[in-house]
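seq as requested:
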Amino acid sequence: MPDFPVIDPQAIENLRSLNPGDNDEFLREITNIFLEDTPLRIAELEQSHATGDVAKFTRAAHSIKGSSANLGAMALRSVAERLENQARSDGVASGAHFIAEIKMEFGRAQDELAKLTAK
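struct tokens:
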């Protein structure tokens, strides 16, 4: 498995270029949305894993994958993608390992994004 950066610096620069000269306000706004929404998606993963709801589980993994990619959280995106693919092919049975990995990668992304968006 290839190593992915916690946060891709090029993705951050791309976001910054969307609103140049705003002192990273846009980046902070996007980051805050990501940091508020991702724990809700992780909770959906846990709940749907417990109930065996494959559709909800897959949607939550897909949502994490997309939002992570948009913000450049590439390691988190990679885990979410593997989880989504696993759920599509085999259901939620092996999801617990991936959920733990998603939580770990989200924590790492959270730490890096805090450094990038600190005033």
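The chain has a mean pLDDT of 93.
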